[in-house]
Amino acid sequence: MEGMLLALSLAIWAAVWVLVVRKRGKLSLVAGNLVGAIVGIVVATAVLAVVAPEPTEAQKQAQATIDRDRQAANENAVAARQATDESTVKEAPGAAIDEITLLYLKHKVYADGSVSCTPKVIGSRSYVGCVGVRVGATSAPQVWEYAGGKFKSINGTASGKASTTFSNESVIEVSPLPLPSDIDVSAIVEQFKKS
Fold first, then answer.
1. Cβ atoms of residues 56 and 94 within 8 Å
2. What is the pTM of this model?
3. What spatial distance separates the first Cα and last Cα of the chain, rounded to whole Å?
4. Residue ranges with strand state E in 25-123
5. Quick check: 132 and 110 in contact, CB under 8 A?
6. Residue 136 — left, alpha, or beta (φ > 0 → left; ψ -120 to 50 → alpha)?
7. Cβ atoms of 131 and 104 closer than 8 Å
8. pLDDT for residue 64 is more than 80
């Protein structure tokens, strides 16, 4: 049935097109072809709208099932892609941790004691949190996203260091604001306070 309707619409379109080109009057051949093609499409669409049967209830249900299955497949594909993305993200390597630790020591960020930098994967991103360590106390964490061999500031204290103390360091970047929606700064900082 659908094949017959397609053939009918093509036949109507071609007939109207040829008719308009032959009866184009003062229009040039190019303009006649253009007008004929457009009028043919309009007439063929109007005829199909009148002639085409309404889908049956079974066809509507089948189409709804197809749409629902397609949506479920798309949702599963997105979930699988996210799971793959999260599983492929690894903690910052030891060399990167050493690199940022040495930057803290070189610039004497925590003069009273030592610095401890810890890697974590949170969501689909790799982070490093650095704290100053003194006897019986630690400072608030400065959190960096580690991506592509660079450390991008996440929280305010890290942004302050990135734009001042570490401004000449090539591996340090100030993250542009606003941060991506999947970065919840307070939740990430809390993760580093626990360790």
1. no
2. 0.55
3. 68
4. 114-122
5. yes
6. left
7. no
8. yes
Residues 6+ apart with CB under 8 A from 125: 89, 145, 147, 182, 183
Q: Which two tokens stand for residue 121?
A: 């994967």
Give which of 4, 3, 29, 2 is closest to 17, Cα–Cα. 29
pLDDT at 78 over 80: no
Quote the Cα angle for 38-22-43, to 5°: 30
Judged against a pLDDT cut of 90, whether residue 3 lies above it is answered with no
Tokens of 125: 């991103």
Pairwise CA distance, residues 33 & 39, whole Å:
10
**Maximum CA extent, the chain:** 98
For residue 92, give the DSSP letter: P
Buried b (16+ CB within 10 A) or exposed e, 78-94: eeeeeeeeeeeeeebee
Task: Provide the strand spans (E) within the chain.
Answer: 114-122, 125-134, 137-138, 142-147, 150-153, 172-173
Residue with the two structure tokens 């000449």? 168
Q: Which two tokens stand for residue 1?
A: 């049935």
Cα gap 35→26, rounded to integer Å: 13
